[in-house]
Amino acid sequence: MRLLDGVVVKKEILADIKQECKSLLKQYGVAPGLAVILVGDNPASQAYVGMKQKACESIGMLSFEHRLAASIAEEELVACIKQLNQDDRVHGILLQLPLPDHLNSDKMLQLIDPKKDVDGFHPENVGRLLVGLPTFKSCTPYGVLKLMEYYHIDPTGKHVVIIGRSNIVGKPLAAMLMQKGDNANATVTVCHSRSQNLAGIASQADILIAAIGKPYFVTPNMVKEGAIVIDVGINRIDDPGSDKGYKLVGDVDYDAILSKVNAITPVPGGVGPLTIAMLMSNTLQSFKNVMKA
Ligand code: GUN
Fold it and tell me: For residue range 5-51, what is the model confidence (pLDDT) as tens digits?
């Protein structure tokens, strides 16, 4: 059994980006800048935003944080996005999701300049991804590809089953894996909450990717002997014995399936760390696009 450790991959990617930021700073006198907008006080989102800021600082990127009250009027958020679109110091804009219920995330995401959409969530960039044009790849699915690449897991011709059809993971990951090209060329099946015979389909997967947001959802009957299992889930569950009162678990019942798998990602420490690394990578790419570097 191979443990697919995401932390080592993240460190390697960030070290490369740090080097490149340093030489670009020398060459152009400016550093790439990432703006993060956080609306409200969702604890998980606050934690993610803090990690993104720290990552920026550690590699020599500028970080612009905009923390807005949960009760903010739509016009204020619109103004914030439009101002960041105009700001030349900002190469990437990330609107942390989910937004409070009174704000329409689709509408807000469409206001972000596609050239600064380092999350790859703007419909223009989603469309570009689907037809195979250069674009910003959404960070979590991109991280899954990088993790597989690092561990020499070639999806070519393999049956990849993705459980989950979200716009953030399932759909873009399916689009990436079905493309022609390196680290792609897979036969992709997407299952979701309405799928019939989900266990039967999942258990045919050479590579099983869980991104459904339900703790311990993937059980041994859903896993083929010798499958590669990638767990994208990050779920908080109560853990009264711990300092924080909760612990993070994936969408996969890790202990129960361990004896069946060829390779598996841990949670935490699997796909999660790659998400931030790919956000930095996309921000660097955006900077290079602007500088024509
Ligand atoms: N919320 C959960 N994952 C993500 C992500 O990748 N980007 C943004 N903007 N919000 C998220």
Answer: 999 999 999 999 999 999 999 999 999 999 999 999 999 999 999 99
Of 10, 52, 116, 171, which one is the catalytic site residue?
52
Ligand 1 centre and the CA of 97: distance in Å?
5
**What pLDDT, on a 0 to 100 scale, did the predictor assign at position 245?**
95
Q: Which of 123, 160, 159, 115 is nearest to 141 (CA)?
A: 160
The residue assigned the tokens 């024509």 is 292
Residue 243: the pLDDT is 94
Instruction: Mark whether 163 and 40 lie in a shared domain.
Output: no
Q: Considering only CA atoms, which residue is closest to atom 2 of ligand 1?
A: 97
| Active-site annotation holds for 238 | no
- Give the residue numbers spanning the domain of 75: 28-114
Radius of gyration for the chain, computed over Cα atoms and rounded to the nearest angstrom = 19
CA of 27 from ligand 1 middle (Å) equals 32
- pLDDT number for residue 293: 84
143 and 266 in one domain? yes
Tell me the C-alpha distance between 140 and 273, whole Å: 9
Q: Give the Cβ contact number of residue 81 at 10 Å.
A: 21
Peptide bond into 268 cis (omega under 30): yes
- Give the C-alpha separation, 289 to 65, whole Å: 23
pLDDT tens per residue across span 112-136? 999 999 999 999 999 999 999 999 9
Q: Both tokens of residue 118?
A: 């380092």
Decide which of 114, 131, 165 is a domain's last residue. 114
Which among 36, 84, 96 is the best mutation to test ligand 1's pocket, defined by most ligand atoms within 8 Å of the CB? 96
Ligand 1 contact, 97 CB (< 6 A): yes
Looking at residue 125, the DSSP 8-state letter turns out to be H
Q: Which positions of the chain have pLDDT values less than 70?
A: none
Q: CB burial class (10 A; 0-12, 13-18, 19+) of residue 111?
A: middle
282 lines ligand 1 (CB under 6 A): no
